[in-house]
Design goal:
514 residues, alpha+beta, Ubiquitin-like (UB roll), Creatine Kinase, Chain A, domain 2, 2 domains, 9-stranded mixed sheet, 15 strands, 36% helix, globular
Length: 514
């Protein structure tokens, strides 16, 4: 029997096909054999969250119509202030390969959908359409495929009367029961994300934790808080965008069903780790070879060009990856969050990290288990990635990944040697090397500064008509509405107690952003 790439998905297993090969006829047969009565469409709204439309059907004719032509929706309500009311009608059409069983409704078969305009084109306003255009540009210019692996960090909050086996502050990383309490919920999250996406690498507790969170926000006031993470395996970057959005949707729903709150907000308390949204990148050729390292495990010219492209785009990418005022209270020294534009190996203080990738050594279990005689040849299975670390949980994920894709294409298409790449290579903790740090450019320190940089560099995104001008204008407006240009100065002029109260209001106003 053929080996299926989506073995965790029960629909693909039942149909006995790779997910990319699923057809309408396959879906109709599966639905009828399993007595489903409803289809649910999911799609990205202008706020970056997953929207849905429930479509019941009572006969095969209705079912086939839904799967063939989708349904209508109001784009100006879905993308408020970004789409003109006079051009608001849009079609929502299912992507067959995204089919999954809804874990929260037993009678529903679900899809991620795309927006199509009245002329049969992917709608220009839609974030996933922009990512699709960026991916097509990358393929056309390089003849390669860009893969991404995201890291979803989030806080889980709940009521607790008595905290036994407490976790020392900032010591939750890879914790286990009975010290970390959220392991059972995390296992449930892991099960459902893996069942739907088939690309989970691992899940674990993260650094940040608070016994009782102080806040004026009644939803989270006095809650116990633990930080968790789900990391994904590399997948084509368009697929990864959908997996991350689905992951957020699943995490929030599972938390809600346990009476908890899940938040991806960038920061909840000063001095406590924030929620990042790191992405590991990989470039592959048509034969599925990872091009970031050569046969000896050394960095290739392609890897350096990718780093160069990310460096060129880095400060403006914050416009899509760090979109609320609290984002810039996560980007502070010595919190494993970058503040300067640089790159390094295995260095969590750098903006771009080249992590360990099994490039020089493999079959590590033989070191620990000398009785293991059979060696697995995994030379072609190169795992090396390049990690981009600035984004956080407030990101517009599809727009961020579209920008990252354009940065990658820029880097690979540019004929220069990127002398700057070598100049911006750092070693050690840059926050402990003041002299080196002074020679590095900094990332923006506010939404206002980020919006100004995007306005200056908008040509990098509008080239090739990838990002529509009105979407760039829309993002600039959202960032400017945060009104945080003088925020740090204002906070520094307050007493210690007043500053703490004011800062918490800023950090806690975006508990459910994106």
């Amino acid at each position: 029997m053929k080996e299926y790439l989506f073995e965790s998905n029960p629909i693909a297993l039942s149909i006995q096909k790779n997910k990319e090969d699923i057809t309408r006829e396959d879906l109709v047969k599966f639905v009828k054999e399993n007595n489903f009565t409803k289809i649910t469409f999911h799609y990205i709204g202008g706020d970056g969250k997953l929207k849905e439309l429930k479509l019941p059907f009572s006969n095969t004719y209705q079912l086939e119509n839904i799967l063939t032509d989708g349904e209508r929706a109001d784009a100006c309500s879905l993308y408020k202030n970004a789409v003109d009311m006079g051009k608001s009608d849009v079609y929502i059409v299912p992507v067959y390969k995204t089919v999954f069983l809804n874990p929260f409704e037993s009678n529903s078969i679900d899809f991620i959908c795309r927006y199509v305009d009245n002329e049969g084109n992917l709608a220009s306003f839609a974030y996933d359409s922009i990512l699709n255009k960026a991916v097509n540009l990358f393929r056309e210019k390089t003849d390669y495929e860009l893969y991404a692996a995201g890291e979803l960090e989030f806080f889980l909050l709940w009521d607790v009367e008595r905290n036994i086996y407490p976790i020392p502050e900032q010591m939750g990383y890879h914790g286990s029961l009975p010290f970390t309490k959220a392991g059972g919920i995390l296992s449930e999250i892991l099960y459902h994300i893996e069942r739907i996406t088939g690309t989970v690498k691992y899940a674990h507790s993260e650094v940040g934790n608070i016994e009782r969170l102080q806040s004026d926000n009644e939803e989270i006031k006095n809650k116990h808080m633990e930080q968790l993470e789900v990391e994904f395996l590399p997948a084509p970057i368009e697929d990864m965008a959908n997996y991350m959005i689905l992951g957020k949707w699943l995490i929030r729903n599972i938390a809600y069903r346990h009476g908890c709150i899940a938040t991806f907000t960038p920061k909840l308390e000063e001095g406590i780790a924030g929620n990042a949204l790191h992405f590991h990148l990989m470039i592959k050729d048509k034969d599925d070879n990872n091009l970031l390292v050569d046969e000896n495990g050394d960095y290739t010219e392609i890897s350096r060009k990718l780093i160069g492209g990310l460096i060129e785009y880095a400060d403006s990418l914050t416009s899509f990856g760090n979109t609320v005022a609290s984002s810039y209270f996560r980007l502070v020294p010595n919190q494993e969050a970058p503040t300067h534009i640089c790159w390094s190996e295995s260095n969590r203080s750098a903006m771009i990290r080249v992590p360990l990738g099994w490039s020089k050594i493999s079959n590590l279990t033989k070191i620990i288990n000398p009785q293991q005689k059979i060696i697995l040849d995994r030379k072609k299975d190169k795992k090396q990635t390049i990690e981009f670390r600035p984004p956080d949980g407030s990101a517009f994920i599809h727009l961020l990944l579209a920008g990252i894709t354009m940065a990658a294409e820029y880097g690979l298409s540019n004929t220069e040697n990127f002398k700057e790449v070598e100049e911006l290579h750092v070693t050690g903790n840059i926050f402990q090397d003041e002299k080196r740090r002074k020679n590095l450019k900094t990332l923006p320190v506010s939404c206002k500064e980020s919006s100004e940089i995007l306005a200056q560099k908008r040509h990098l995104y509008e080239r090739g008509k990838i990002f529509p001008a009105f979407i760039i204008d829309y993002i600039i407006r959202i960032l400017q509405e945060e009104n945080d240009g003088d925020l740090r100065i204002s906070l520094n002029n307050l007493s210690s107690e007043e500053r703490t109260i004011c800062l918490r209001k800023i950090l806690h106003k975006d508990v459910h952003s994106r």
